[in-house]
Design brief:
Layout lengths: L13 E7 L5 H18 L4 E6 L6 E2 L5 E2 L13 E6 L3 H4 L2 H10 L5 E6 L1 H7 L7 E2 L6 H7 L4 E2 L4 E4 L2 E4 L2 H16 L1 H10 L23 H12 L7 H7 L4 H12 L3 H19 L4 H7 L5 H12 L9
Parallel strand pairs: 1-2, 1-5, 5-6, 6-10, 7-8
Antiparallel strand pairs: 3-4, 9-10
Helix pairs in contact: 1-6, 1-7, 6-7, 11-13
Amino acid sequence: MTENAIFSPSDQPLSIALFVLPQASILEVASALDPLRNANRQLGSEAYRWRVVSPDGGPVPLTCGIELPSSGPLAHAAGAEALIVVAGYRLHQVATRPLIRDLRRIAPRFRLVGGIDAGPWVLARAGLLDGYRATVHWEDLEDLAAAHPHIDVVPDRFVIDRNRVTISGAAPAADFMLHLIRARHGAALSRQVANSFLTRARPGHEPQIAPPRPEPALDPRVAAALARMEAGIDAPESMAETARAVGLSPRRLETLFRDALGTTPAAHALGLRLAAARRMLTDTRHPLAEVALRTGFSSPATLSRAFRARFGQPPGALRR
């Protein structure tokens, strides 16, 4: 991980501009700003300063329906040392060509430029990640790598490479801010801030999806079966294969699933695949055939029948 001087010990205030796009998550904004607020409280001084800017300078509609006030348009970010883009859904609508152009133009003014959740997509479209290591939310890793081959895409929680930082989601945004606080003000302060939120800092190089560990309330064999289903969305195995892999008979696995989850292994696996298909239909422009392929359905027609049975409407209804 290569870092710049922003991550050196310093008593000088650090100013961060958060460029929040419509349909971002309030949790991502809070995860970025609240650790800084708490650090100031612990220090008794304004070591971290921030401002929120938006595409049109007005309040930003977030996914939860709340509008986030802003201090002005992107130009008002000038003077901050770091610029971090927070983005979520509907990028094809909110990440407009003028916005990408303005971001590309203003980026050289900052010592650090970053993105949270879908923010790396915005940076990539502006050409600001070419030649860098970067991450993005795990649902988009393959798509970002395919669309931007000049970016070294990795599945880390957050990645700092020279004057770029990419952060995969809300919880990793807090991890990154705790890392920043530790670098500038020491481990003790970072730990105090983490403790105040009843959490702990996780390093950026950790995978976004942690290795499966049995949940306390679940039989370890059920947990192992769930992990196999989640990892095999695009290539689902038969329930007999799953049962055999976790050392059970199909009947015994079904009994354990009903006891623990109130459903069958087959129904749960199908639900995972349909949820993934629904997410792709709403968040991407992938053709229906590709969505079917990526979620383990033999054809678009097979996906459509299962989708209608589960959600009461055909897949195409989500895009009309």
